[in-house]
């Protein structure tokens, strides 16, 4: 039964049969062709038998494995990013093999076009590389790698199946996190939109007294240390060196309510907030600050206290992986109560949420003002990019004019929200989803440079 289940018919065989049928029909009109057609039919049947023998013979392959394939998938996939996958092929036949590879990818991708074709010489290996972009966190189940092998005759196909079933978890965008980490280590964050922030003044955390170097601020010269050094080792200016304030608590507050369910380029606003929180937490730890996470919706979700210990990023990654959007309105009163109870030290609070109207923001404003009294609060919400595209289009008729007017009203209301929050000392970021990570990192570095945290 195994050869029968693995046997498939190639299109060339169907074309051959159709040609033979037409020749038999023609032979009824021209009987002189009938003997030639019978010979062609016998030859065609012999070729089918030879093709079957070439594909299914096992004398040279005791294990019956005349072809081998293997799919290489990362242990976990990065949400919202292009993840590389590789299929390795090895032809163990003694003839040139033409292969068709169908990879059974998880149903979440809703793709039916993962078909690859290749030509392999005897005992040759090849690698097929392609990419997948998941848009939801969770477990993804890969099926089999189906390889259909054709001999040089190309009449039949033999199917091989490899990698039967594999579960892979899709985590928040750790590829984006690594990209920012690498660029930060090599001083190239400007490539992803992070601006160079000029430091305003000095922090008050003294680090050391060191010799003056060209470019140092002359206002930091320590004249007493300079005079002592001049007496003992010759004239040399000494300056006071200061370092950034360290170990400041930085919390990402992630709203999981219904306002974060809106989609953009396949991802929800919640997923954008989760990806940005992961990157920002990693940057904060690199800056020697402490990073923590709190999630909330109609009730408080999970709270990870801000720490700078080994393994903190892994804890943050696992916490963010499990978050799901809820479809109820978020309870800011519970958020304020939880923060007042569990976060006693003044901290930087980055609130990822979304306000569509002024009235929606004003309902939560009393709780935001109370948070801003005890902490440095940064409210991050989203610009409606579809609305912006509608506004930028020229009006062509009366209906379009009406739509543009309504769109401009909502867009203006978003700007009003920014001004209203600013009146109470609340920092804000109004950003498009695709620019969220870069804008959030920019604001964090700006606040740190200004000594506000």
Automatic annotation (TrEMBL):
Keywords, A to Z? Answer: Membrane, Transmembrane, Transmembrane helix
Q: Report TM segments.
A: 39-56
Question: Which InterPro entries does the UniProt entry name for this protein?
Answer: DUF58
- Specify whether ATP-binding is a keyword of the entry: no
Protein name, per record: DUF58 domain-containing protein
The DUF58 domain is annotated at: 208-379
């Amino acid at each position: 039964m195994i050869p029968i289940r693995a046997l498939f018919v190639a299109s060339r065989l169907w074309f051959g049969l159709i040609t033979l049928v037409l020749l038999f029909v023609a032979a009824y009109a021209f009987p002189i062709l009938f003997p030639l057609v019978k010979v062609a039919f016998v030859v065609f049947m012999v070729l089918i038998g030879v093709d079957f023998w070439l594909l299914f013979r096992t004398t040279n392959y005791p294990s019956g494995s005349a072809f081998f394939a293997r799919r290489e998938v990362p242990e976990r996939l990065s949400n919202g990013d292009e993840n590389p996958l590789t299929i390795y092929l090895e032809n163990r036949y003694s003839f040139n093999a033409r292969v068709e590879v169908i990879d059974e990818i998880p149903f979440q991708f809703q793709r039916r076009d993962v078909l690859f074709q290749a030509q392999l010489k005897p005992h040759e290996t090849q690698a097929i590389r392609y990419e997948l972009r998941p848009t939801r966190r969770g477990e993804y189940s890969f099926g089999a790698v189906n390889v259909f092998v054709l001999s040089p005759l190309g009449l039949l196909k033999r199917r091989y199946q490899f990698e039967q079933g594999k579960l892979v978890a899709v985590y928040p965008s750790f590829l984006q996190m690594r990209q920012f980490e690498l660029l930060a280590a090599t001083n190239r964050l400007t490539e992803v939109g992070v601006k160079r922030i000029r430091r305003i003044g000095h922090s008050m955390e003294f680090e050391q007294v060191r010799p003056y170097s060209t470019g140092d601020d002359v206002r930091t010269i320590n004249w007493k240390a300079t005079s002592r050094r001049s007496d003992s080792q010759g004239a040399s200016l000494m300056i006071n060196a200061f370092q950034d304030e360290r170990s400041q608590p930085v919390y990402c507050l992630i709203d999981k309510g219904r306002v974060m369910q809106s989609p953009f380029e396949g991802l929800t606003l919640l997923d954008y907030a989760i990806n940005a929180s992961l990157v920002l937490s990693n940057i904060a730890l690199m800056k020697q600050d402490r990073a923590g996470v709190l999630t909330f919706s109609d009730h408080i979700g999970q709270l990870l206290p801000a720490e700078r210990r080994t393994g903190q990023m892994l804890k943050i990654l696992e916490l963010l992986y499990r978050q799901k959007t809820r479809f109820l309105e978020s309870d800011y009163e519970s958020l304020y109560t939880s923060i007042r109870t569990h976060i006693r030290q003044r901290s930087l609070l980055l609130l990822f949420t979304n306000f569509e109207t002024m009235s929606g923001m004003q309902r939560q404003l009393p709780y935001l003002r109370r948070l801003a009294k005890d902490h440095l609060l940064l409210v991050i919400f989203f610009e409606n990019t579809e609305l912006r595209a509608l506004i930028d289009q020229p009006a062509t008729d009366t209906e379009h004019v009406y739509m543009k007017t309504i769109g401009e009203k909502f867009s203006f209301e978003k700007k009003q929200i920014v001004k209203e929050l600013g009146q109470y000392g609340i920092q804000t970021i109004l950003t498009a989803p695709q620019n969220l990570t870069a804008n959030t990192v920019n604001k964090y570095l700006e606040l740190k440079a200004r000594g506000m945290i």
